[in-house]
């Protein structure tokens, strides 16, 4: 249970009370350093066999608060983490809702999906469940407690620093994301790129939201890209290419804070990869794409209007395994399969049943009259972004994955039918008991349309 820090009564009133609405936007932004203090277990790769060793970059929790002329507010939180689980997300959002008098739809938590950040208790749990010792488990738990305080502090600070602002949007392009299902890393990606023969669907859009004060100075920039943050597999803390992109933008715009959200890049990799130089290179390319929008494109102003929606839908799984099947899997030579099976058996032994559905988080905001921002949980494949953009507003539809709860890969119907890692075997590493039903794409897309229709943006 998180023990909330106590704020002085006057400061608490300042944090809770809405800033005075005038003719325009109010915006506040803040960040907290969430780099672990010492060595601990890292997330992202099953091949990890020892704790971290130093750092390349710091890791950050960032918060942006927006308020329209009617007093409607939203809070965007970005984290340099591979993902968070539903329980942790609920603990964080419950506290924010209580302190700032918000409802759940007004809060979105987006993870960069860096694979060089710390492990958390329940995200990708089979990767470390049977491996880490009690000392490392205590460090993970202590880090998670500290992380919650730091996220809440960033949000409080963002609320406290609200000021009149102008918002505008644009869209750029970056081309280093590659469909990894169609272009294997061991292949000759540089040659295929040169020849124009890379295969498979991609989304190279770079959505950009600029937040400026009334004097025109940039105070924050929010941007997204659909690509795994897997350039690096080192044992040093790092925000990977998104972290380098944010650092470059903040260096170019002193006193501003850059927030990155990961798009539907579950089947997209930065290729080639595996060197620090490439991570920095891709970060510079992404930052340049954002700078191109900020400096050379006539960005479109956003009217100071906000609408928000959020719902957990019952996302169906396929056929559940029997206890006998799970017991057999617990003896598997595959240590991650054995770890998942052990976790499932412990659940059954507590008298709990395996659920046929998962409470899947879908959120959406409409900014002004122009932008629909959709927040999808899990590692979402590119098909969702391409389909939703085609059915909604094109480049004015911003589709984030890795949002609010990263519980599994989210394959499209096509990817499920094709099989492979994103459509099947990846479920082992997240601990869910079965593959998804072929109907998951329909359920998710229908919910997005329902929310945006209710908001009046369709």
TrEMBL record:
EC number(s) on file: 3.5.1.23
Q: Which residue ranges does UniProt annotate as crossing the membrane? A: none
Neutral/alkaline non-lysosomal ceramidase N-terminal domain ranges (all copies) = 26-253
Q: Which Pfam families match?
A: Ceramidase_alk
Q: Which UniProt keywords apply?
A: Hydrolase, Signal
Q: Does the keyword Hydrolase apply?
A: yes
Q: Which residues form the signal peptide?
A: 1-21
Q: Which GO terms describe its molecular function?
A: N-acylsphingosine amidohydrolase activity
Q: What is this protein called?
A: Neutral ceramidase
Q: Which organism is it from?
A: Stieleria magnilauensis
Domain of life (superkingdom): Bacteria
